[in-house]
Amino acid sequence: MTSSLLQEPRVCKTAYSAVSAMIGLITARRAPELFSTIILIGPSPCYIDDGDYVGGFKREQIDELLDFLDRNHMAWSQAMAPVIMGNPDRPELGEELSASFCRTDPDVAKQFARVTFPTDSRGDLGPIVSRVLILQCRDDVIAPRSVGEYVQRAIPGSDLVILDATGHCPNLSAPEETIAAIRAFI
């Protein structure tokens, strides 16, 4: 006896943040029948400034971050986590993220960063069959507001909500606001 789940395709409502947002979009473009709703939290198709595109960093800054990570994974984690979290009035959030980074295998973290930060996935944006919500923090050093606006322009029919939250992890720093925006969309 086979499960009905194996016989019928599932249509998912799913949320992705940061790097996984671009992976989710690429997947939705390749298999649109699998997704009905996609929620992107702080997506970034490119972290490097390029002409009129403001990705948040100059190429030299990315190179410095990667060199720092190569030299000392633990120090990089402790220095970058509070910056990424973006809530200096709540240092426990930066500490939680730092602990998470420190639990990551340094070789995996280095490889992930070397693949992620220099990548330009702007060409992977475009029409999506699914409904798309982009949640963007009002102040995010990793994916500035301009990136959320760029992603919205590049995905016709998508909705953009600017959260009052700061930092790159509103699911941790402002879960109630993040959940409310998601519920209002779905």
Give the number of domains: 1
Largest sheet geometry: 4 strands, parallel
CATH topology description: Rossmann fold
CATH superfamily: Alpha/Beta hydrolase fold, catalytic domain
The secondary structure category is alpha/beta
Radius of gyration: 17 Å
Low-confidence blocks of residues:
1-10
H/E element order: HEHEHHHHEHEHH
The order of strands across the largest sheet is: 1-2-3-4
How much of the sequence lies in strands comes to 15-25%
Q: Estimate the mean pLDDT confidence.
A: 87
- Find the count of extended strands (DSSP E, 2+ residues): 4
Briefly, what CATH class?
Answer: Alpha Beta
The number of helical runs is: 9
State the separation between the terminal residues, measured CA to CA.
Answer: 34 Å
C-alpha geometry? globular
CATH architecture annotation: 3-Layer(aba) Sandwich
What share of residues is helical? 40-55%
Descriptors:
186 residues, alpha/beta, Rossmann fold, four-stranded parallel sheet, 4 strands, globular, disordered N terminus
Summarize the structure in words.
This protein has 186 residues and is an alpha/beta fold. It has a single domain, classed as Rossmann fold, CATH 3.40.50. The protein is 49% helix and 16% strand. It contains 9 helices and 4 strands; from the N terminus they run H-E-H-E-H-H-H-H-E-H-E-H-H. Strands 1-2-3-4 form a 4-stranded parallel sheet, with helices on both faces. Helix 7 links the parallel strand 3 and strand 4. Helix 3 packs across helix 4 and helix 4 packs antiparallel against helix 5. The protein is globular and about 45 Å long. The N terminus is likely disordered.
